Amino acid sequence: MREILGSDVRQIEPFGLEIRFDLAQGLSPDDGAALKDLFYRHKLLLFRNQNLTREQQFDVLGHIGPVDRASPLDYVTPDDTILGSRNLAFHSDMHFAPFPAEGVSLLALDVEDDSTYTAFVDAAAAYDRLPDEAARRIDKLKSVRAATPGVYEDELPYELPEGMHSMEREAVMRHPVTGEPIVYVARCSTSRLVGLDREDSTALLHTLYDTLYDEAHMLKHWWRNGDLLIWDNLALQHARPDIEGITRRKLQRVTVATHDQSAQIPAGYVAPVDVDGWQVGTDS
Ligand SMILES: [Fe+2]
Fold first, then answer.
1. How far is the CA of 21 from the centre of ligand 1 (A)?
2. Which residues pair with 113 in a beta bridge?
């Protein structure tokens, strides 16, 4: 008898769900509905041993929401021209855009098994762990977000480098589907909390970062060939250490986005190190 998506699952610690199902066989409407439900409930889904064309991956993600066929990043490799082999600090993709992609998926087409990982933290769960006073304060605050793709290992300075694109957004995002509050700041791309002086802003941001990036609540997924990860790009942040020296790491990337992502990419995003002399690690 044909398996039903969601009937064979395993909880991942500290969050996420592994689902045993061969996605290449196609999804029935019930399978698709189950996929969408599990995606929003668990925020991260892992399917192992998958063999999908890019079109098939579009079809799978299409059960969650509209897929982005115009993304400039189709494959993540050590020599791709956008991310390359650099360290990527915790971020959500397109976090500085008004409407970031809701979901991201990566399928390991060709990797050295168990030699590299992507790390995840749950920023919705982090909100629930915040000290009451910090939660109360950030509920009313906006933050300044810079257009960085996560390449900065250090904390962004209070004063943004001149010329760097940025936007102000609520420090707490309400998830558009689940309604959950999400701590929507990131160490590598949030410069300050609007209306607070340097000392106050920095102290409150450090409280948020300490909660968000607590290793006890961090998931590290070590890639094996055939792994498909699908995650909630609003509720989760992801990161990876640099992959210098790794030659085999080709991940096929498909995103779910209700709003056009390419139209929201500001100038300076693709090569942010060239923006007015900004250097990786600069703290002035
Ligand atoms: Fe990313």
1. 26
2. none
Q: What is the CATH number of domain 71-268?
A: 3.60.130.10
Q: How far is the CA of 125 from the centre of ligand 1 (A)?
A: 20
Residue 64 CA to ligand 1 center (angstroms) comes to 19
Q: Is this model's pTM higher than 0.90 or not?
A: yes
Question: How close is the Cα of 76 to the center of ligand 1, in Å?
Answer: 10
Cβ neighbours, 10 Å, residue 242: 14
Q: Pick from 166, 153, 190, 163: which is nearest to 280 by CA?
A: 153
The pair of structure tokens assigned to 12 is 């991942």
Q: How far is the CA of 234 from the centre of ligand 1 (A)?
A: 12
Look at the block and give the residue holding tokens 């694109």.
165
pLDDT tens track for 122-157:
999 999 999 999 999 999 999 998 887 555 567 888
Q: How far is the CA of 93 from the centre of ligand 1 (A)?
A: 5
Query: For residue range 48-70, what is the model confidence (pLDDT) as tens digits?
Result: 999 999 999 999 999 999 999 98
Distance from the alpha carbon of residue 144 to the mean position of ligand 1, in angstroms: 19
Q: How far is the CA of 90 from the centre of ligand 1 (A)?
A: 8
Considering only the C-alpha atoms of the chain, give the largest distance between any 2 of them, rounded to a whole number of Å: 63
- Ranges assigned E (strand) in the chain: 9-11, 17-19, 44-47, 75-76, 88-91, 103-111, 117-122, 142-146, 166-170, 172-174, 181-183, 190-193, 219-222, 228-232, 236-240, 249-256
Instruction: Answer for the pair 183, 211: CB distance below 8 angstroms, yes or no.
Output: yes
